[in-house]
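Pasting two entries for a bug report.
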Amino acid sequence: MSKHVIKAGSILIAEPFMMGNTFKRAVIAVCEHRVDGTVGFILNKRIDMTIESLVASFPEFEAPVYYGGPVDTDTIHYIHNLGDLLDGSNEVSRGVYWGGDFEKLKFLITSGLVKPDNIKFFIGYSGWSGGQLQEELDQGTWIVDDLYANYAFKDEDTSLWSTVLNNKGDKYTVIAQMPESPSHN
């Protein structure tokens, strides 16, 4: 049984033949990992909604909204690259922060200090209870790597899964080329 190192600031890359729409070809930013559980957000499952349509008092803002995962889909979360500009943020990796003062965020957006490419909003999150993620890793369900700010804010959503695998190199470049359906092999 191999031991994979998971921490806030890791990414989980779905193995190529994972079935089901929730995690198929998903790249998940791990924002919290503790003994009692793990919280992350799917970076590449954009949905056709706007943040102002979800939050009535939100200023007009052209930032995309993503499906963060199947847990608590009536909640909104966000990661950003604003750092200390947004009070209460938690740094999860270099240039990637989670959460922060929501009222100040709205103020910064209204003031023009936050642009859509500075932030990603999520409906729901991906969560694992204590030990659950380690079991999935031991079964080969996920490939682990580091979370880079470009993965969160710059890379194209539709190609993120293959981009991350190509960047890992070696055997992962072969995996990145696999078609979504095994019948297309």
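Entry 2 (this is the one that rendered wrong in the viewer):
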Amino acid sequence: MIIETTTLKDVLLITPRVFGDARGFFMETWNQQKFRDNGLDLEFVQDNHSRSARGILRGMHYQTENTQGKLVRVSAGSVFDVAVDLRRSSETFGQWYGVTLDAKTHKMLWVPPGFAHGFYVTSDYADFQYKCSNFYDPTSEVCLSFDDPTVAIDWPTTLGGEPQLSEKDQAGLAWGEIPLFD
């Protein structure tokens, strides 16, 4: 696998080895020993899979308690995936990183605890899968507004007009209202 740093401290872009021929392909999406050998000693407790249509935006979510790291990937379609650094002590505090994840390149993104995370579907539909380092805790979940002007994420929404949001995401908080990490 190839592990690349991103513009955000501790957020990593991972390209797995893919073996393919005329019949299809094979790849390992998770191998604890190989990740550990590459400096990522991760433990996961929950796997999630969502399917969303073009123009759906999910995020920007995080938990203040039972914080989650997420290893995210797309198994069908494509998304624009975003992480925002919420750690005051980080040199990339308040900055965002976005990357296209799709079923063609098989790239994955490691989003550690201390980041808000979300994605926007750029294909007809996308199957989004992720491994979590802690269990979902709805009592400590926070949603940063996807269009907060302080963070100023450059979403590729021109592909499908205004994004479609859940009620929770429509009620996202402004940067000055969200709890942050030390």
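Dev reply: Rendering is fixed now. As a check, the viewer should reflect this: The helical segments are 32-37, 167-170.
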